[in-house]
Amino acid sequence: MATNLAALVVLAAFLAGPAACEGASICFNGWLRLPTYNPWLCSRGSRTRGLPWQRGRSPSGLGLGHGYYDNRWSRSYCPRAEVIVRGAVRDAVAAYPGIGAGLIRLFFHDCFVRGCDASVLLTTTNSNNSDTEREGLPNKNSLRGFEVIDAAKAAIEAACPGKVSCADIVAFAARDASYFLSNRRINIRMPGGRYDGRESFANETDQLPGPFSNVAELQASFAAKGLTSDEMVTLSGAHTIGGARCMFFSSRFSEMDPAFAAKLRTQCNGNDDTNVNQDDVTPYVLDKQYYRNVIDRKVLFTSDAVLNSTDTMTQVRENANRAGAWERKFERAMENMGKIGIKTRADQGAEIRKVCSRVNN
Ligand code: HEM
Ligand SMILES: *[C@@H]1O[C@H](CO)[C@@H](O)[C@H](O)[C@H]1NC(C)=O
Ligand SMILES: *[C@@H]1O[C@H](CO)[C@@H](O)[C@H](O)[C@H]1NC(C)=O
Ligand SMILES: *[C@@H]1O[C@H](CO)[C@@H](O)[C@H](O)[C@H]1NC(C)=O
């Protein structure tokens, strides 16, 4: 009895203890190479909902619509909005395909933190916070493509001021980058109607799964946003384009295909900040090659390699082998990701930003 009571007191003290994310090192575990992970240590706040026994509901996307800017009689009429974004993305990707990878990732990092509300673009906020998501460990010196969003926004503001949100521009840009990088094989039906948020905090980027995450952590972080394990596997296929820094995978050369590891060792040459292609086979094409790479041990991160677990390997094989299967699933999963935590006109503290990097006055 006494020991039970003592245990209860310790537990209660622990649960009532200080906020979860003091030790940034603990809660950014998936981003830092640490020996152990204890979800309870990071369980206050959004992560709680991510534990496997507390799955989030699939995002409804209520308030979003296809052709949202095409209705002549609505307050959001801006028929050239999507055309302008597509042009900006086409030019940027033609000049430099890596930017397309950046735009797809920007959308993921926006949607997973505070929902798809362009909080990832802010450098200053309603509370005058400048330690925004951009400063967070997963984003700093890593996200790219901001200038494409800004160029599209400027052109859209010139055509129809105050109508099109930065959040929708990010979503359309990810759709269009997927289209061009897949040689037009991936056509995401991306609805519009998101409003922009007015806050952004660096510490909330710990909700993003990290390269050292295991399969349970990956599933939990996606479940916290209402996405399934299958969607997690499907969306991970985006690692068939773009690059990554050596610091995130140089600890696991010995687990990789030896020839692949040898090539990476040479490229990295002991430098943590060197950037290498994620997909060694078709580095600039958004295709299903990623899943063949998982099977062949030619992927970079722990979070990629662990998809060979019994829970996910069936999907990996199917995506690798069946033509068109992954592409269709990717279209749906991206559309679904675009519904996470969206804000609409009815929401307090939501707006159509004039400039994507700062809130309206
Ligand atoms: C499943 C969990 C995921 C983890 C742990 C993860 C982690 C990472 C890491 C560590 C990098 C390299 C960053 C750097 O070196 O600076 C990266 C790059 C990238 N990720 Fe992910 N990611 C995940 C899921 C996704 C998803 C869902 C998408 C999009 C649908 C995505 C798209 C990308 C792209 C396109 C790049 C290359 C970016 C560029 O070249 O600019 N990732 N990811
Ligand atoms: C995150 O940072 C903000 C301000 O930058 C702070 O108010 C908040 O308490 C922090 N949250 C956590 C969980 O540490
Ligand atoms: C933020 O700064 C502006 C101008 O510098 C000021 O008017 C406003 O009251 C500040 N807001 C907060 C929440 O501190
Ligand atoms: C998954 O791959 C890793 C190395 O990348 C290996 O150590 C592990 O045994 C594999 N697991 C299964 C179930 O095949």
UniProtKB/TrEMBL annotation:
Residues 63-360 form the Plant heme peroxidase family profile domain. Pfam families: peroxidase. The active site is at H109. Its cofactor is heme b; Ca(2+). GO terms for molecular function: heme binding; lactoperoxidase activity; metal ion binding; peroxidase activity. Its EC number is 1.11.1.7. GO terms for biological process: hydrogen peroxide catabolic process; response to oxidative stress; response to stress. Heme b binds at H239. Removal of H(2)O(2), oxidation of toxic reductants, biosynthesis and degradation of lignin, suberization, auxin catabolism, response to environmental stresses such as wounding, pathogen attack and oxidative stress. Belongs to the peroxidase family. Ascorbate peroxidase subfamily. This is Peroxidase. It comes from Triticum aestivum.
